[in-house]
């Protein structure tokens, strides 16, 4: 019997569909536990290339007299700190979105933030937590990128100890 469902959620369109499908299955089935899992796997180099950090090379520094000096370069430590703040804020927003979706459906569940390779982290958590069904979104990768990178959903299907539902 399936009593614990886990949905992989990263805020993408595919994961939003997975969350909707998981909540529908949960509503119909009488399961006891519902878990949303977000895998924190963003590196500094990945985030630094995002538009959010486009202006991170310099900062405006006020002087004592209130006149602003010209842009001053940020040190590497300041860039890393700002990058980590963006990553954490992004994860916080994703978790908040998942909680809101659950609350609007009246689902009381857990939200877990995992670290590492997404497929590995999801499969390891599912096995150690007694998850009976994993719901993932379709990756959205196609063509050459899918060939070289693969998709998290494919890897979860291949390595999971339990059934996996791929929402399209």
From TrEMBL:
Protein name (record): Nucleotide-binding universal stress UspA family protein
Occurrences of domain UspA (ranges): 1-168
Domain of life: Bacteria
Species in which this protein is naturally found: Falsibacillus pallidus
PANTHER family the UniProt entry points to: STRESS RESPONSE PROTEIN NHAX (PTHR46268), UNIVERSAL STRESS PROTEIN UP12 (PTHR46268:SF6)
SUPFAM superfamilies in UniProt: Adenine nucleotide alpha hydrolases-like
Family: Belongs to the universal stress protein A family.
Family matches, as CDD domains: USP-like
């Amino acid at each position: 019997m399936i009593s614990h469902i886990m949905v992989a959620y990263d805020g993408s369109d595919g994961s939003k569909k997975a969350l909707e499908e998981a909540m529908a299955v949960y509503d119909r089935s009488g399961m006891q536990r519902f878990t949303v899992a977000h895998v924190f796997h963003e590196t500094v180099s990945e985030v630094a290339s995002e538009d959010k950090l486009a202006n991170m090379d310099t900062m405006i520094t006020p002087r004592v007299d209130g006149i602003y000096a010209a842009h001053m370069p940020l040190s590497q430590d300041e860039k890393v700190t700002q990058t980590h703040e963006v990553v954490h804020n992004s994860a916080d927003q994703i978790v908040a979105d998942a909680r809101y979706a659950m609350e609007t459906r009246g689902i009381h569940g857990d939200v877990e933030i995992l670290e590492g390779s997404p497929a590995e982290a999801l499969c390891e958590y599912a096995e150690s937590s007694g998850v009976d069904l994993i719901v993932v979104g379709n990756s959205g990768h196609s063509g050459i990128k899918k060939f070289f990178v693969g998709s998290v959903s494919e890897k979860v299907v291949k390595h999971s100890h339990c059934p996996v539902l791929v929402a399209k």
